[in-house]
Amino acid sequence: MQTLPTPTTSDTTSSQPTFDTTIKRRKTRPVKVGNVTIGGGYPVVVQSMINEDTLDIDGSVAAIRRLHEIGCEIVRVTVPSIAHAVALAEIKQKLIKTYQDVPIVADVHHNGMKIALEVAKHIEKVRINPGLYVFEKPNPNRTEYTKAEFDEIGEKIRATLEPLVVSLRDQGKAMRIGVNHGSLAERMLFTYGDTPEGMVESALEFIRICESLDFRNIVISMKASRVPVMVAAYRLLAKRFDELGMDYPLHLGVTEAGDGEYGRIKSTAGIATLLADGIGDTIRVSLTEPPENEIPVCYSILQALGLRKTMVEYVACPSCGRTLFNLEEVLHKVREATKHLTGLDIAVMGCIVNGPGEMADADYGYVGKTPGYISLYRGREEIKKVPETQGVEELINLIKADGRWVEP
């Protein structure tokens, strides 16, 4: 991007405003999950979840490994019973023996204290849902919750949560308090309604219990299947954290986003909106597809926002009547030849009108300036003009000459 010098004048009212184009992330405490750190200024962490039944030891190990090998940094598994919790110990040991020690999160739901206590022995992080951890059967005839009833259930939650908190605290492990819009506890629904405020208060109740036991290795999520609800809940939680002096890292996600293009757009709309606000320390894109499909979407979101540089950034014009070559075809060729590289910006521009200006921030440029020929750029400098048939090959040679090429 070209920038103009600030006008030199004593009249400050006429000077041009300056805008910071980098995202300023909220300051959060670091929470260690095995060899990965969430928050504390560390890069936004990518997560996903396997589909395999945790009782299937070999299948689970293979699924965790597949995700980790393509960039998933923390893997979640479901643990619906004590048998699954015991199986997770074997999964962990087999991973270490046959691959490496991958950070694992155990998902514990209904009345899960015994399960959570068992699983906490074996893995780095336990995820609980405040609406389900102490499950109360809804009363269809209830018209209100008295303060005494509200507090009584709060004490029951504390008694049930305390052994898990103490176990995780003493082992130096982590917890995710994962609030879901669709599974708020009945008393939260009666008190606050089916609202982001109810979600936030549900999380704060559990956070306060943890803090009273001197446990702060906590990550919080506020997931919803509707993007506006999800965005509002996280923004409200961040505001409440500021008011209360809390600095816990946040796990972002749109739950049950669906599949295909819309699932990806829906997830991106929620996650990217908050990341652009500086909110969020770890993300999961939830697709109704094989979990391996979630990881590229996560990295694309982070790359587009400039939060992680994990692939080549391609800048390409949309093509128009001025374009002097088949832009789609050439972009495909350039991408296939260079997609294994990291940390580069490569521009493919169809004509001289937009080329040098629009691609000024790119490391390398491929521009159609005259029919049948390609001009190759390093930054803003035109390096050479080559026949169109040799354009991709000569681009690779230029990258090699600069010592920035690695073999696929």
TrEMBL record:
EC class name: oxidoreductase
Residue ranges with Low complexity bias: 1-21
Residues given in the record as [4Fe-4S] cluster binding sites: C317, C320, C351, E358
Single GO MF annotation: 4 iron, 4 sulfur cluster binding
GO annotation terms (biological process): isopentenyl diphosphate biosynthetic process, methylerythritol 4-phosphate pathway; terpenoid biosynthetic process
Region of interest: Disordered: 1-26
Metal-binding in keyword set: yes
Catalysis: reaction(s): (2E)-4-hydroxy-3-methylbut-2-enyl diphosphate + 2 oxidized [2Fe-2S]-[ferredoxin] + H2O = 2-C-methyl-D-erythritol 2,4-cyclic diphosphate + 2 reduced [2Fe-2S]-[ferredoxin] + H(+)
Domain IspG C-terminal: 313-400
Keywords: 4Fe-4S, Iron, Iron-sulfur, Isoprene biosynthesis, Metal-binding, Oxidoreductase
Domain of life: Bacteria
Residue ranges constituting the IspG TIM-barrel domain according to the UniProt record: 28-299
EC number of the protein: 1.17.7.1
InterPro entries tied to this protein: Dihydropteroate_synth-like_sf, IspG_bac, IspG_bac-typ, IspG_C, IspG_TIM, NO2/SO3_Rdtase_4Fe4S_sf
Cofactor(s) for this UniProt protein: [4Fe-4S] cluster
Keyword Oxidoreductase: yes
Gene3D superfamilies registered for this protein in UniProt: Dihydropteroate synthase-like, Sulfite Reductase Hemoprotein, domain 1
Note on how the cofactor is bound: Binds 1 [4Fe-4S] cluster.
Annotated metabolic or biological route of this protein: Isoprenoid biosynthesis; isopentenyl diphosphate biosynthesis via DXP pathway; isopentenyl diphosphate from 1-deoxy-D-xylulose 5-phosphate: step 5/6
Family: Belongs to the IspG family.
Biological role: Converts 2C-methyl-D-erythritol 2,4-cyclodiphosphate (ME-2,4cPP) into 1-hydroxy-2-methyl-2-(E)-butenyl 4-diphosphate.
Protein's recorded name: 4-hydroxy-3-methylbut-2-en-1-yl diphosphate synthase (ferredoxin)
Record organism: Amazonocrinis nigriterrae CENA67
Lineage of source species: Bacteria, Bacillati, Cyanobacteriota, Cyanophyceae, Nostocales
